[in-house]
Write a structure and sequence with these properties.
292 residues, mainly alpha
């Protein structure tokens, strides 16, 4: 029974955010199957990230122990942010590169955040089952870590959509990975630096909360911006379609008026060109005689 309770507690934050991002895209939603594929791919990315992190550790890019902010930053970058965000990006790219449903700006955010949530779900399961107090760990991670991964995914998808739909500049291309990696590195650095005894923990906590609120605001504004741009483009396309339909209707009406004004418009329409010519001659003949 406790096993199921821990498992449900570990998965719940990611599942809630999964339904949240799907709800935001409710006007023109992505197929559930594609979103579940992205979520499952995120689970696979967690395994890939562990392999990359171990490889970077073997190459001495970071050390498990640290005694300074620089050491915390170094471990945050090479043990977590770089391998994890690269692994998530790789899976995200596989999911969207030939996805015919990826046709709006917000779709980049939707798919990238689903990959991130799949990653966060497996990571959360591992942390909670390995914790001394899974309740306390679950609460902290539900409030901070899982939303953090979601926000990193939003940043990745936001810049990917900018490159695909709006501005494929070198800066935007770099930010697809740089933005989530930098945000993730700072996120972990703040948390890990609080363990250093010579630093004022309370001050670091205040700075971390300010950073987290700023990250949350940026992510939510990115979602809102992309949704608004998609809505504007959809309205423009609808207006164009309505204008073309109106023009076609006008052309049809004009053709109808020309037919009504023609000499043979009274009565039943002729079935072939011979009847048309005969009716025209007869009407012309009777009109001329009536005038005479």
């Amino acid at each position: 029974m406790e096993f199921l309770l821990v498992l449900a507690s570990a998965l719940a934050p990611a599942v809630i955010l999964f339904f949240y991002i799907r709800k935001r895209d409710e006007k023109r939603p992505e197929p559930v199957g594609e979103l579940l594929k992205a979520f499952g791919g995120g689970v696979v990315s967690a395994v890939l990230a562990v392999i990359l992190a171990l490889l970077l550790g073997e190459l001495h890019f970071y050390y498990n122990t640290y005694d300074s902010i620089l050491g915390a930053f170094r471990k945050s970058l090479f043990a977590a942010a770089l391998p994890e965000e690269f692994a998530k990006f790789f899976i995200f790219w596989l999911v969207v590169r030939k996805n015919r449903y990826f046709d709006e700006r917000v779709d980049g955010i939707v798919y990238a955040s689903c990959v991130a949530l799949g990653f966060a779900a497996l990571e959360n399961v591992m942390y909670l089952f390995g914790a001394d107090s899974w309740v306390a760990t679950g609460v902290v991670r539900a409030v901070l870590s899982v939303p953090g991964h979601f926000f990193f995914g939003v940043l990745m998808g936001y810049y990917y959509s900018l490159v695909k739909f709006k501005n494929p500049s070198v800066f935007n291309m770099c930010m697809v990975l740089v933005a989530p990696i930098l945000a993730h590195t700072l996120f972990n650095t703040f948390l890990m630096s609080m363990q250093l005894s010579y630093l004022p923990c309370f001050l670091l906590f205040i700075l971390f909360i300010a950073f987290f609120i700023s990250l949350r605001k940026r992510a939510l504004n990115s979602i809102k911006e992309q949704l608004q741009e998609d809505d504007n483009e959809f309205e423009v396309l609808n207006s164009s379609d309505e204008a073309m339909a109106g023009q076609d209707a006008y052309s049809s009406d004009a053709s109808g008026e020309m037919l009504i004004d023609s000499p043979i418009s009274d009565g039943e329409q002729p079935e072939n060109s011979d009847e048309l010519a005969e009716d025209f001659i007869m009407k012309k003949y009777f009109d001329d005689n009536s005038k005479g």
